[in-house]
Amino acid sequence: MLKPYLEKYHTNNFQYILVDDSGCVLEVDNPIFPIKVNDKIQDTHPFFEILNNLILIKNECFEFTCINLEFNGKPYVVDLTFRPQNNQENLLIIENLTKHYNNYQLTAQTRNESIINSQILVLKNEYLQEKETFKNNFIANFSHQLRNPITASIIFSDLLNNSDLSTEQKNYINIIQSANKDLKNRIEDILDISKIESGKLILVDKVFNLKELLNEVAIMYEYMANKKGIDFNFKIAENIPEFVEGDQYRLKQILNNLLNNAINNTTKGSITLDISLNYKRAKKVNLHFEITDTGCGINKEHLETIFNRFTNLESDVKIDRGFGLGLSIVKYLITEMDGNIKVESEIDKGSKFICNLSFKTSNYNQSQKEELLNKQLLKLEGRYNVLLVEDSELIQLTILKTLASTGLFYVNIINKGEELIPNIIDKKVDIILLSNTIEGFSAIDLAASVRNLSKEYKKTPIIVLSTQAYKEDIKRFKQNGINNVIIKPFDKKNLLEGIQKYLKKSTD
Amino acid sequence: MTVSKKIVLIGHFGVGKTSLIRRFVENTFSEDYKVTIGVHISKKTITIPEGEQISLIIWDLEGQDDIKKTRPSYLLGTNGFIYVFDLSRPVTFQDLNSELSFLKENYPKIPVKVVGNKMDLVNKIYLKEHQTIFEPHVDYFVSAKTGSKVEKLFSKLAEDLI
């Protein structure tokens, strides 16, 4: 019964070929491949040259699978069996499996491509990570190098400003001071960006006086706005809590950035800082900040990218100043504080930055508040012996001038690490200021050498003047017997605040 | 009389075995990757400096991440191996030691040329970084794309086979 169907549907994919020991074709059955009687099989395709070696090994069976052959420009994929016989009749059986293997090829193609692509992605990712690490280290080192000269520049221009100068000279000094401040802020911004990218920027939540912080900010920007002939409006809702818990330094940074932009972009009209309460629940307060200016406004196309990094590099004069790094940091900080920010703007009418930020509520009351304030107020009496270990002459002079200007300190300066111990033993030292860049010595090792002296030196305050500003650097210092870290560049206020607390301790 | 020699190209998939052969035999190159299944065989006759003609029967084997998975019938009667890896993908040369040991143990008398392909994708610093892997084994850094050292590779192997 099957016979008629077989005749109709059966396809014979096999071709049987007999060749003699030289490879000459003796007989062929089914003409699937154009191999004819008297052809030399080796000449039909280079594959068959393998038969030259095999033909002599009689009564064996050689099987080859998935062989790509080509006859008259047409490709075939076949399985082959070769049976050399003793009687000069060597049998070659070829099975045409082109369709089957072509399907397999498609599967292999997809599989291999996806494996290779994923390997390339892994490599690209590794490469990018290496590049990123290099960049962040570069930024950190670069800013590290800049800290000493900027510190000197800030302090000496302050000192110069307090000396007897003509009005013109005072103006020049003001310009230098403003440039110094700008430079310092830019370095901090670049460092922040690198910290953000390497995941090292961590918020530090502490209880702080929110109203006081807002007032301070408002006073400063009112002064700056008025100086530019712009009005400054400060609106703060009455139900804003006085104390909250959060990162006050970063809140201030956000407001400074937004208000600086407002001042830079406004030439007439007004700037408004408006703070209101969104809600207060579950030990959290959510505050609404609006910073509005009547400045030049921002192009619609820039509004979408304004929080991206390096927007500032685009050559649009109208957004030339203040944006870019600063706003991308603002956006990051706000996101980290579970907040959000958006901007509305119209060219030549002005811009409005709106952000909502959450803080934890605090139980601080008035008396605790006073206590907190008292802690911050320091009263110094008498004279203190400062041992300064610093090999930068600029910084030596900077500190000497700063401390001398208060009339409260005797300063002994050394610039070599090995001179530290001889200058402590049997000498009265109330505080040690230690640079982290002393040649051949790490600040941690020097501190350890002091702590390892007798018991009386265990409590001598050691303050490191550091060009390393990462959180983990500071943590490392503090874990190694160092009381406090003052980050370069510092100004007079930073320096005095950084050491006063410890002077108080040592005279207790 | 022309002598025939069977040369087999082996290595991971996607390292450029087919491209090397196409560059050598047809002097062409395509960026498109087409997976080889089974084996393709091509032929090119060259004249070595001694004046002798050699017909190279070049077997282009499908890529394997492990040489032990290669079908043994493909290696019957081999006169020379070219082991190819992709310089830009470390996964293709990380097992170079064991892959070459396998050849040495199982085919001790058959010469092997080891080549790092896609030289156009890497630089000298990269080569230096991987020096400890490359230096002991690699005969040629080649590029099927630019053709660099491809001709030299095949003709040197052909000379070694005579």
TrEMBL record, chain A:
Keywords for the protein's UniProt record, in alphabetical order: Kinase, Phosphoprotein, Transferase
Domain Response regulatory: 385-503
Enzyme Commission number(s) of this protein: 2.7.13.3
GO MF annotation: an example: phosphorelay sensor kinase activity
Gene3D superfamilies, per database record: 1.10.287.130, 3.40.50.2300, Histidine kinase-like ATPase, C-terminal domain (3.30.565.10)
PROSITE patterns: HIS_KIN, RESPONSE_REGULATORY
Cellular component GO terms held in the UniProt record: plasma membrane
Enzyme superclass (EC): transferase
InterPro entries per UniProt: CheY-like_superfamily (IPR011006), HATPase_C_sf (IPR036890), HATPase_dom (IPR003594), His_kinase_dom (IPR005467), HisK_dim/P_dom (IPR003661), HisK_dim/P_sf (IPR036097), Sig_transdc_His_kin-like_C (IPR004358), Sig_transdc_resp-reg_receiver (IPR001789)
Record Pfam families: HATPase_c, HisKA, Response_reg
Catalytic activity as recorded in UniProt: ATP + protein L-histidine = ADP + protein N-phospho-L-histidine
Domain Histidine kinase span(s) in chain numbering: 141-361
Record-given protein name: histidine kinase
Origin species: Algibacter luteus
From TrEMBL, chain B:
Coiled-coil boundaries: none
InterPro entries given in the database record: P-loop_NTPase, Small_GTP-bd, Small_GTPase
Record Pfam families: Ras
Record's keyword terms, sorted: Nucleotide-binding
Keyword RNA-binding among record annotations: no
GO molecular function: GTP binding; GTPase activity
Disulfide bond in keyword set: no
Protein name: Small GTP-binding protein domain-containing protein
